[in-house]
Design a protein that fits this description.
single chain; alpha/beta; Aminopeptidase; six-stranded mixed beta sheet; five-stranded antiparallel beta sheet; about 30% helix
């Protein structure tokens, strides 16, 4: 019996071991990853979860391309910059001619030349209109004493309405002459001056002559007479002559500005930079332009231009002053015309019209003496 129980115990041990081995070999169910839990099939009897509809995100509108960066505007240079400084416009007209405009005034410049024109009247520059550093430009002197007064006319302010008329030459100084016609400049100067005096006095103005007859008056005394008379305007009357027998026409001179060349010179030509007469440079330009314009319109002579010179009679003035060359005694056709009283009367009338217009538009501001 004991042996049978032993066999039975052994059998039970074997069976238990076999069962334990079979249990340990069974495959465990796979574990669903958390990330795929939403995709798992729901159990039977449970509610199917509702899937929210997905709203499509609209496509973004295309962004317009950024504009190409503009090149910075180039700074104005040369005559463009000079014109801009006084509020004028400049343009190249072609064939070497430039036009500068402001307020109804038109200044035309010609490359490489000292000759310009203001509203059709010839004006002489202090220096040629040249190209410098790639641009045509006026000299500093011409910017200040030509461009500015031409396009920004000076206000006419005078210390009085007294007019001093200076008949050039006299006495032992005959001036120009035409022997074939027995013409002496000193006589013609006095004749036109006396005619002009009468016209102005008839208009109510006080007129002083530096000489009333054929006598010599030193040049320095002529400006002294004007200064002592408290003159508002000084006008010297002359006639011209030239070796070139073809030269003709009328020209008006004002005192050359400081550190500038006179119209008939290529260099400054003076060590002195300024005279008392230069206090009126801008006003001299305006009065000279008006007088020259009227003479050319009234007499239809060749326009020889508004020029500059250091004439002694203009240097020491305490008022605006001009010198007018009324024609050429050396010209074959102009001299006989000048010899007629009718022509000289027209000269006087034209000058009277200019001076009267200037005085009527002027502001009188007396100065301390």
């Amino acid at each position: 019996m004991r042996a049978a129980y032993c066999k039975l115990d052994c059998l039970l041990v074997v069976l238990s071991s076999a069962a334990f081995f079979l249990c340990s070999c069974q495959t465990q169910p796979a574990k669903v990853p958390e990330s795929n839990a939403a995709e798992a099939v729901p159990e039977i009897g449970t509610e199917t979860p509702r899937v929210e509809s997905v709203v499509a995100t609209p496509e973004p509108e295309p962004v317009p391309p950024l504009p190409e960066p503009k090149e910075p505007a180039r700074p104005l240079s040369g005559i463009f910059e000079q014109a801009n400084r006084i509020g004028a416009t400049a343009q190249a007209k072609g064939d070497g001619v430039w036009l500068i405009e402001k307020g109804g005034r038109k200044l035309e410049l010609t490359e490489q030349s000292r000759m310009a024109s203001l509203n059709g009247i010839v004006v002489f520059l202090n220096e040629p209109f040249l190209e410098k550093e790639g641009a045509f430009v006026l000299s500093d002197s011409d910017f200040e004493y030509t461009l500015r007064p031409a396009l920004e006319p000076a206000e006419i302010v005078l210390r009085s309405k007294v007019i001093v008329i200076d008949p050039g030459h006299g006495g032992a100084e005959p001036g120009s002459e035409n022997k074939s016609l027995s013409l002496l400049e000193k006589d013609l100067n006095l004749d036109v001056s006396i005619r002009l005096q009468k016209l102005l006095e008839d208009n109510g103005y006080k007129v002083v002559l530096t000489r009333y007859n054929d006598r010599l008056v030193p040049l320095e005394d002529r400006s002294r007479i004007a200064n002592r008379s408290n003159a508002g305007i000084f006008l010297s009357i002359h006639f011209n002559s030239a070796l070139n027998k073809e030269a003709s026409g009328i020209e008006t001179y004002l005192l050359t500005p400081p550190e500038s060349a006179s119209s008939n010179d290529d260099a400054i030509g003076s060590s002195e930079t300024s005279y008392s007469g230069n206090s009126f440079d801008s006003l001299n330009f305006e009065l000279g332009f008006r007088i020259q314009s009227r003479l050319i319109a009234d007499l239809q002579r060749e326009d020889r231009g508004l020029k500059k010179a250091r004439f002694k009679v203009l240097k020491d003035l305490e008022c605006p002053g001009l010198l007018v060359e009324c024609g050429f005694l050396s010209h074959g056709k102009e001299a006989p015309l000048i010899n007629t009283p009718v022509y000289r009367q027209k000269l006087a009338e034209s000058l009277s019209h200019s001076l009267t217009s200037i005085l009527m538009s002027s502001q009188i501001v007396p100065t301390a003496r």
